[in-house]
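Contributing new records

If you add data, match the layout below exactly. Sequence lines come first and carry their own label; structure lines follow with theirs. Keep one chain per record. Anything else will be rejected by the validation script.
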Amino acid sequence: MTGTTEVSWGSWLQSWKTEIDEETERIDRQKAAFGAESVARIKDLNVLILGAQGVGVETAKNLILSNVGSVTLWDPNPTQMADLGTNFYLHANHVGMARAKACMGDLKTLNPFCKVQVLEEEAITEKVLVESVATGKPYSAVVVTSLSILQGDASLTLAQVNEVCRNNNAAFLLACNHGVSTSLFSDFGLKHEITDEFGEPTRLLALSNLEVLSGDEIPELLKIEGIDKKSTVVLLTVAQSDHGLDDGNKILLDDLRGPLEVWNGHRVQIQRVAFRSPTAAKVQTADVSFQEILKQPTKAVLKNFEKQYNYYLQQHEQDETNKDKKFPVRTITMFNRLAVILDDEHHNKLPEGLSVADLETGYQAGGLLQQVRPPIYKEYSSFVDTLEGSASPAVPQMLRGDHWEAGKGIELHLSVAGVLEFYQRHKAWPAIHSTEDGQKLVDIVQELSKKRQESGNGGCWAQQVSFGFPTGEPRDLDEVQIRHFAQLFGTELTGLCAFLGGAAAQEVLKKTGKYTPINQWIHHDEPALVHIDEDDDTSNVSPLFGSRYDHQIAILGKDFQAKMANQRVFLVGCGALGCEYLKGLSLMGVATGRQGKIYVTDMDRIEVSNLSRQFLFRDKDVGSPKSVSGARVVKEWNPQMNITALEKRVGTDSEDFFDDDFWEALHVCWNALDNVMARKYTDRQCLLYSKPLLESGTLGTKCNHEVILPYRTSTYNDGKESDENENQIAMCTLRSFPFLPLHCIEFAKQAYFSDYFEFGPDQYETFRKDMTGFFEQLDSMEPGEQLKSLKMIHAYIELQQKGDGGGIDLAACIRVAFHRLVEDFRNSVLNLCHSADVMEKSSGKQFWTGTKRRPRPIDWTQPVPELMEYLYCTANMYAVVWGLDPVRDRATFEKIVTDLKLEQPDWTAPSQNVDLSENDDEADSGDAAAEAEKLKAELYKVDPATLKPAHPHDFEKDDDSNFHVDFLTISTNLRAWNYDIKASQRHAVKVTAGRIIPALATTTAMVCGLVDIEFCKLVLGLESQGRDKFLNSNINLAAGSGNFTTFSPDPPVVVKTGLSTGPKRFTSWDKIVLAFRQDEELTVEELVAYVQKTFGVTVDRLFAHGNPSDKALYNSVDQQKLKWDIQIDDQGKPHVSDGVFTQWPQIRMAVQMLGRLPATSGQRKVFENQINNVKTALDKTKKSFENIFTGPVSKAYHHVYRPEEAGEKQDYFDRVNGKREYVLLDVHCQTAEEADIHLPCIKYIVSRDEPEEGQEQAVKRMKVA
């Protein structure tokens, strides 16, 4: 059937394995980001890291987790207590021990499949740089993690290390954090090959038509770059509406059939296809009609537009005012077409055995076009040239865009060069807080800048910069920035170390050719963090007494450290992001004071695939709660931390735990989440309690973070992010006409797995437990879903009736699996082909053209391994449904199948043809309703008490023992075989069906480091200085320097009220606050009146905040019902207000009949009863409204929103709202002219505390905030 038939059945799947390949499982998410080929190349990388302080250990950690071949760490310097503030693998008992050796034990435990070694040399020489001590092979990359790590006459200098790397084809990285400054330098040598520039998926296009045009056949309107009347052009029409390719791109041809098959595997260069159209015609390319026209052959399309072109041309020429004016035309691209020009210039030649005549007549159907990215070669300059020579950037790149454009990187770039010169002159590095050393560095930098300016050779010197461009006009250097660089040179900050460690590690991985390296230098600076007084008062930052927080105190101050100790932080999530944040909190000393507290919550358990990036966890932790394990680890690092691990979901169902007291006591909420709904919820809570929120997310090499400040920035909910998939595939394509492997995967997941193992068992269980409730919910389903549900339940019951005494064994499960095999991969295919043949015969038109592939049925009489594999996975999954133990031994299973003597039933043509329409709605047959009613009648006779319970599957992609991914893989590939589509690898099925988000340790560490720094700003209280002190980011580590983007947070989104007087605008942070004593609170009527009077509006509805359902405390429509009346006078004549008919239209007939029937008619009683029933309902509605309207607001809220049925929901409502002294309300209102008015939510507070004796207190206090 496929290439796998040469292998014993199932050897290409997973569940049967007795031993799991843990290395493959660990890097599962990484493989989803990089691809299998790049992951294999990463395994060949051997990396030397020089320096084991913060940046060094972060870089090492990320590379080890990335599963490189080996990491060698060098740092013979003795551990100091201050190193514990940035190196999380150093402990107090390591003080005095060589740093590299001290942290080696923990680094080795990160990944048993990566060789981790210490380079035990006192100095770095050319000899040790050439060969890895771990593998004996050359180093692929050398990473220097501090400007000061190479010192002494025995060691090479930075420049010399760089030259050795260039001479030995090793990448050279410098990643250093000194104080509040960071610098990242990357050198990949004289010639570096980039095989994948940006890391974006290549396009896979399905061919739907192929045409050949040459000579005079080429229409005049056709516009293709590089063609003339001598050209031969192959036009490829694709099924997708937009191919997304550009002129000169290359594609790989595949899946062509017949005489065109010899073209498979060849690369061709393509051009875009367009045509000229009169500007005046204003062709709307987005219209459906235009898209439909493009589905025709190219000649037909252009013939259609040629008439239009000639008409407008004639109009132009006949207008005398256009004399000597050029006929205005525009170029319209046909985005569903590509051109292959057959000539030497475009490097397109037909292979031997394929002629142009074959192309003209040989295409029938099929064909795939895979975008190919040719390699790019780049040359990089040396460290010396980029720092001091002609290659030195005039305007060095800064991480922050506005700082880059303003030229603020000049000081940093010169400071790096200056501090190296400082060491050469003084044989020492600048001392912490030394005013003298600070001035010495300023003098050196001034000297360097002046020298470069006078040389006239360009490079970096102090000049004016305008919008990122140097002007050549000299300017003064920022001496304060340079002095701080010197005074804080000997310090690191954990957040900046994490940022550099992630970015540097990702640069190392680019040695494989995957992704684009940065353009050599990127600097960053956080001057707002520096708390050194310019008047030399250093009492807040010194003296330093050997604390683990010495570096942090030296930069941010002792008062900062005291605040940090008493921070109360809520960390939501303990996955990859959460582990990094816990690390940062531990190193910074958060919640080490008596009032400090960290809460971390996560409901998930640790899985093997987590270990490649969630670095707090080890093999022994698999199966344990993430939050508990993470908290335990960081508590061991910093025993003074006050941390509580929770396993609670944060949402509307846990507000009895995460209550007002909890939220109000927090200083910050910190999201480490992977889904939009949870992020939106925590954002809403931060809005309610006016708390700052730190938000971040990653997707492969892409990441972003956002700082949300109360009243100062926009919020997460102000955006429009959604979890919904925007690229849905048409159901008709999945159901009947797949042409890509993706279509087979999606159908296997959405139809086979979902229907058989989730929907079916779930519906059956609903029926078994509550027959009445089942039939009630059945009526709410679409007809097709109804019939499917009924059929499945009927089949489950029938299966039990066939068994011995209602029992179900594995043999029964195998029979069900065999039935599904025959139905899904044989009978459905034969039915589809039969219906298509009937259509072809009646219409005379070929049906299987373009992307429509004629499928072929499987045949059990010619068994192949895949068929047995399907039975194995499917039957075992049915066994789990019925509570049976799976039979994992394949020999045993095969014997059971053999003994069953399964026979393939004969196929007979269906009485009704399959729906061949290309719409997304499954056509229901005319007999569907009758069949559903018949099945309902049969089910009504069943006694649910006699039925065996079923257990629906819950899809879990990371459990290889549950058969889920195996079932999807074999189902996908059987369907692919049906349609002659390429088979899919198991991992590709797992990633697609499991909606696996590519995740990398490098990206996670980098973005979390940036967020750690923003947290420091919050503790410092920098929000009082404005949002410009904070940074948001949007970074793609794959795409080079241009995609390192940071910027100030956006201001809050402003909502216009529409009021003519009073507040004109507000933001989502604002609330209308109304506060009362309990014995003096407002009624709903008074609250409505207050809002109407205060804002000059008419209130339509008053309802719970964020809950715009039909329920409301006040609805103006209900108030109008107070005026409605229903009466029957003495003569028996009904009098009904007009409004009643809008609410109860059914009594209109009763009113009419009472007006016609004589008083003696016996039928009058029936209609009188109908009217009286409505009158009773109306009176009840009036009474209910009046009770709510005239009662206190707080009681009205509870009356309307408290669940009616006693039980857990009611108890939960009472637990949550019983503690609260407020309710949140939204109001819909309008002006007298019926213009909509927008107001903030109302926070209505009722204080339960009695005023103290003698205390003056206003009975009522109202304010608008």
